[in-house]
Design a protein that fits this description.
Radius of gyration: 27 Å
Helix content: 25-40%
Shape: globular
Oligomer: single chain
Distance between the termini: 59 Å
Strand order of the largest sheet: 19-16-13-12-11-22-21-20
Largest sheet: 8 strands, parallel
């Protein structure tokens, strides 16, 4: 957009706003302080450009508006139709006026339903010189849940659309209202055992599930996203900035648990055992986690195991896995094979723009064996995830493993390469300024393009959900508000210079609920932050649980929320991974950390005073419930010794036990007395985010093997077990 246009006259701004409205881009937003703010014309222009609307001149804006108004009239059917079961719904069919058509639904099971063409035509309009009618075809109310196909044939014209029928409400949630559950929350990579290779793995996950379920009555185990990072070191440490959200990180494989490991030649096995021994010291280190060293060692071992011939049954299982995952897995494995040879900034990527590029067509056969290896890694991940979930259920967990779904992906990763056709270019996802991140956040992730995703029948979104849910009892959707609207930031702009882009939440939430229903899983939405008042009610209506964090729950008068006023349909916890563990939070370490990193927008003394007052208000309410001694008699402000802090941590969990929430989460870091923050939002390498191993209050590493005899862990776990 030109500078003159950026400042533009009122008439141009009005047309730009109308164009933004057609593309579901908000021209204003409410800040965290409640102040209404205007989005600049320059920002609107760049975001609309990412959506495919030209806005460089006044003429382009007017032309884009005309094109947008006519877009739906130029297509016979929409790309996708998503509706709820038993819903009275019509779909608009655009054909030359007076023309009739045969319309049918091909159901998921292969059967079909013929639909009646209405006798009364609908609205008509001139479209590219052809008088065109918009006919409303009534869809049956008794369609089964699932993924169907809507087909239209009219003479030589034909069109098809994906038709998705979703549950009115996720029924897996209903069981929780009869018997609520508590569970541990952990960053899996940070939890090592004596058998780990310096990083927590899927065998550790199975063991933690077995311990917490069988010994302490836990009903679930919520872990960080296990999405795949780069295929070879160095790898991105943040589990929330993966290369793909559909496939898993081989870093988490337990090498020794692969059946073919037992058939390795003696020399190869000795070499792998030596690698494991060399990493044993890392398991007990309190220093930053070293993913790269561990992953390099694992990849070398996995290469050897891959070369061992598989038995007939195992080979058939591998082949079936590849067939089920289909082209998506093959494309991901191809990206891995390419990326292990080419760095992200290699000029060759200018030619290798996607799996359908001409370069790939010419050279795909050269990568056949490496593609097979990376497919095999995903099969091993899948098998060990299945084992972990089976261990959880065998230990009595009603839900079991709950996976975390990140908001988006790395801009130079596999999904950005494979799915570029349904992602928006030139923008990234983030968050406007808020109380805890006063400069806003830029997560550097490309967002779904709303229209292109719908035109793709939402299949990339569905396939991602299916893979994550295959061996899961639940899924936590990070920033679930992003399925309603996302904060888009033009490349190079400050995080606050963005705008909200709205999505078809009925489609996205509906598909999420459908896939969870089919997997028998619960859905937890992380619904914190700035949102419109009706959003939480909508999620509850669909059977999606919310998230309540003790420190962030406030009554209408601004004070801390009494426990009886918490939501029933929620996962309630004392803290979150974006804050220090409770021992550190009680001491105000989050304020000191943000001050040291230059993340505060007001004087640190003022920030400390506000923070201390807010924490003391919560503690006062906890004392009023008889869960802590009265002020002055060991108040648990975080300034006392480890025993006092432990009593306070237990009291805060006793407080959330008084809520009606159906799920209650306990951070493993809280259960062992860890103080250090896992992640400081708004930073990258300024702080060692996602690289902090699990330690106790003395700063010494705590292993999974230590938990059965850990007094703090047992006391807090038994408190939860005895009170549920």
């Amino acid at each position: 957009m030109t500078e003159a246009h950026a400042a533009g006259p009122a008439e141009t701004t009005a047309i730009l706003h109308e164009l933004a409205d057609h593309h579901h881009v908000a021209t204003t937003f409410d800040g965290w302080d409640g102040t209404r703010r205007e989005v600049s014309d320059a920002t609107l222009g760049r975001i609309l450009g990412a959506l495919g609307a030209a806005t460089a001149t006044d003429e382009e804006i007017e032309r884009s508006l005309t094109e947008t108004r006519m877009a739906s009239w130029r297509r016979i059917l929409p790309g996708a139709v998503v509706l709820r079961e038993q819903q009275n719904r019509t779909v608009t069919v655009h054909l030359p006026a007076g023309e009739q058509a045969d319309v049918r639904i091909v159901l998921e099971d292969g059967s079909h339903r013929e639909l009646e063409w209405p006798s009364v035509s609908g609205e008509e309009r001139e479209v590219d010189g052809v008088r065109t009618g918009a006919t409303l075809v009534v869809l049956p109310e008794d369609l089964p849940l699932g993924w169907h196909r809507l087909e239209v044939r009219a003479g030589h014209r034909q069109a098809a659309s994906v038709l998705v029928v979703t549950p009115e409400r996720l029924t897996t949630t209903a069981a929780l209202t009869r018997r609520r559950a508590w569970g541990l929350m952990t960053q899996l990579y940070s939890l090592r055992s004596s058998r780990s290779w310096g990083i927590g793995d899927l065998a550790d996950l199975a063991d933690l599930a077995a311990l917490s379920g069988a010994e302490h009555g836990a009903g679930f185990l919520l872990i960080n996203p296990l999405h795949a990072a780069e295929p070879v070191p160095p790898v991105e440490p943040s589990p929330y900035l993966p290369t793909t959200r559909r496939f898993f990180h081989p870093l988490y494989i337990r090498v020794e648990d692969i059946p073919e490991y037992g058939y390795l030649p003696g020399e190869d096995r000795s070499r792998i055992e030596a690698a494991a021994r060399s990493l044993a010291a890392a398991n007990t280190s309190a220093e930053q986690l070293d993913r790269d060293t561990a992953y390099a060692a694992k990849l070398a071992a996995l290469e050897s195991i891959y070369s061992v011939p598989r038995g007939i049954a195992r080979q058939q299982q591998f082949d079936r896995f590849c067939a089920v995952e289909g082209q998506g897995l093959e494309d991901f494995a191809l990206w891995c094979a390419l990326s292990e040879q080419l760095p992200a900034d290699a000029p060759q990527w200018q030619q290798i723009t996607g799996p359908d590029s001409a370069w790939i067509s010419e050279h795909r056969s050269e990568f056949t064996e490496r593609v097979r290896f990376f497919q095999w890694l995903q099969w091993i991940c899948d098998q060990q995830l299945e084992t972990a979930q089976a261990a959880a259920r065998s230990a009595g967990m009603e839900i079991g493993v709950v996976h975390d779904l990140a908001v988006g992906v790395h801009p130079a990763g596999a999904d950005a390469w494979m799915l570029r056709g349904v992602l928006a270019p030139g923008v990234s996802v983030g968050a406007p300024p808020d109380m805890f991140n006063q400069q806003g956040q830029d997560w550097s992730q490309p967002p779904w393009h709303p229209q292109r995703l719908a035109d793709a029948g939402y299949l990339p979104y569905r396939d991602m959900l299916r893979t994550v849910l295959r061996h899961a009892g639940g899924i936590r959707v990070d920033h679930i508000l992003g399925l309603f609207r996302l904060w888009w930031i033009p490349q190079g702009a400050a995080p606050g210079d963005g705008a909200y882009v709205y999505y078809d939440h009925e489609a996205l939430i509906g598909i999420l609920v459908l896939e969870a229903q089919r997997a028998g899983a619960v859905v937890i939405g992380e619904d914190l932050g700035v949102f419109e008042p009706w959003v939480q009610e909508y999620l509850a209506e669909r059977g999606v649980l919310g998230t309540s964090i003790l420190w962030f729950e406030h009554s209408e008068d601004g004070g801390p929320r009494p426990p009886e006023d918490y939501r029933q349909g929620a996962l309630t916890t004392v803290n979150t991974h974006d804050l220090p563990p409770t021992a550190g939070y009680l001491a105000g370490e989050h304020v000191d950390l943000r001050d040291s990193l230059g993340l505060l927008n007001r004087p640190v003394e003022e920030e400390r005073a506000i923070d201390e007052a807010a924490r003391e208000a919560v503690l006062a309410l906890v004392r009023s419930r008889g869960l802590l001694p009265s002020a002055g008699t060991g108040t648990g402000t975080g300034s006392g010794g480890p025993e006092e802090v432990q009593r306070t941590v237990e009291a805060l969990h006793a407080y959330i036990l008084q809520t009606p929430s159906v799920l209650l989460g306990v951070a493993l870091a809280d259960a062992v007395g860890e103080r250090r923050t896992q992640n400081q939002p708004g930073t990258a390498d300024e702080y060692p985010n996602w690289r902090i191993p699990l330690c106790g209050p003395d700063g010494q590493a705590i292993l999974l093997d230590d938990l059965p005899s850990n007094q703090r862990f047992n006391a807090l776990a038994d408190l939860m077990k005895d009170s549920i």
